[in-house]
Amino acid sequence: MRKLAGAAWTMRFTGRALLPFLALWATLTLPACTQDPEEKLAAAQARDALANGYFLEAEKGWEDYIRTYPRGRSRLEAWNRLVDMSELRGDAEKSADIMEAMLLEYAQEPEVRRATALRLAALYNRLDRGDLALDLWRGVLGSKDLPSEKRSEIQLLMAKTSRDRGAAEASVQLLRECVKNAQAPGTRALCLYDLAQGLTLDQRFPAAMEAIEEVRRMREAPEHIRIQATFLLAEIHELDRNTKKARELYESIRGLYPNREVVEYRLRNLGQDRGKAEPTPEPAQ
After folding, report:
1. Verdict on whether the full-model pTM lies above 0.85
2. 20 touches 4 (CB < 8 A)
3. How far is Cα 14 from Cα 193, in angstroms, rounded to an integer?
4. From the CA atom positions of the chain, what is the Rg in Å?
5. CATH at residue 75
């Protein structure tokens, strides 16, 4: 993960370069027993400024609060509002810097640290910094009290990022774990479908078909995932030149698949050399 050193910070805002050090300071000071009236007023003023659309004033107010009250009762709110405002302004780097400071300050508070790590991982993923996102996700997965469903959701994200970064086998293993951990039918169906997609890309067709058939057997699987799984199964049969079975499967989702033209195209071109056929229409998003 990137270092929290001051070199990673700019001096655009007075308090920005000091935030990591203020976070460390907060972890070393004694907790406050009561809320100082001035502290309460400072938080209220920052809140009101944000509510009324005075973003620069609100940002300065929360930065001043962080700097002035190392054990303030509203520090978590202050940090989160600073992240929100940075994201609204499109300053992803500042958002990341603030959340890194939060990870330092809340190192001994698992729930806050976990929520912050997941938010920061999502930001890194959007910024195409998959290695940093994966590091954070691995840290969260190491939590013993992490609910199984949340574990499977994180594994779905990690699997996609891993495959995007060329780690195909790691992606497959994550998805197999995802299937084991998932408890909600929708999540489990999605884990199986993504697993089938990955196995298909790796040309491991028997294993892919097994995962697809499991989705199709799930009574509680969301219909859109079942339809997508059926389309993928038809593609596999088409690649295997089992035209009859592929046609049967395409026909079964005719009118149901999000982009009907894709299915019609496949039906028109069944049995033809895919390399010589007309281009496949883009799937509906």
Report:
1. no
2. yes
3. 49
4. 25
5. 1.25.40.10
pLDDT digits (tens, 9 = 90+) for 234-261: 999 999 999 999 999 999 999 999 999 9
Instruction: With beta carbons less than 8 A apart as the criterion, state whether 56 and 40 touch.
Output: no
Q: Domain range holding 132?
A: 1-146
How many angstroms separate the CA atoms of 270 and 252, rounded? Answer: 15
Domain count for the chain: 1
- N- to C-terminal Cα separation, the chain: 33
Token digits of residue 223: 């219909």
156 lies in some domain:
no
H or E, element range at 102: helix 92-105
Note whether residue 219 is domain-resident: no
* Structural domain contains residue 261: no
- Name residues whose C-beta falls within 8 Å of residue 75's C-beta, 6 or more positions apart in sequence: 26, 65, 66, 69, 105
Q: Are 123 and 95 in contact (CB under 8 A)?
A: yes
User: Which pLDDT tens digit goes with each residue over 44-70?
Assistant: 999 999 999 999 999 999 999 999 999
d(CA 220, CA 86): 41
User: Within a domain: residue 254?
Assistant: no
| Amino acid, res. 257 | Y
The amino acid that residue 133 corresponds to is A
Closest CA to 192 of 204, 202, 177: 177
- What is the phi/psi pair of residue 165, to 5°? -95, 10
